[in-house]
What we know:
Keywords: ATP-binding, Hydrolase, Nucleotide-binding. The protein is α+β, with helices and mostly antiparallel strands.
Amino acid sequence: MRFLPMGESAWLVETDDIDAVLALDAALAPLADAGDGVWAEVDDLVPAARTLLVVARRTTNLADLATQIRAAATRADRSGPAQTAGDVEIPVRYDGPDLAEVAERTGLSQAEVVAAHTGTPWRVGFGGFAPGFAYLVGGDPRLEVSRRSEPRTKVPVGAVGLAGEFSGIYPRESPGGWQLIGSTDVVLWDADRDPPALLAPGTTVRFTEVGS
């Protein structure tokens, strides 16, 4: 791990990959929730593709916090893989406008694309782009495709897409450049729900095919 100071009250912890980020986030989250010692001053944990931002307060001793982060990471390594943050099933109509293109790019039939997308559980790596949007990792590697060369100006809410190693679901209508293979009626973000986001880092996501 590499520690990069972000201002006077946060560490950006660089790791090798998303699996290491998820393991570190799972190790630190219960410590921050318990709030003992220096962890009482940790306000937020923000995972990304290869980093975890640990946000504390201006009064926090960052050197002490870094020591505690390293110790927690070492304990997590010894205890094995972190538990997931629960399972969520997402029913999908595989009617996306880019399904045929994804099949052509991957050398699969459209049915095989659907089978690959539903056949392997995905995991929420991190959130971003829009409230409720989750970057899903760990799917079938045959589904890795590049983004569209020309993004759409309007992607409908509930669109299910692929981009690089990720899959994702658009939580609201917005511009976007992902390859769209399906759609779902599941609500990803609800301000009146606790928590508002359906998908949290570490959550296992299983896609199931439903009729149109």
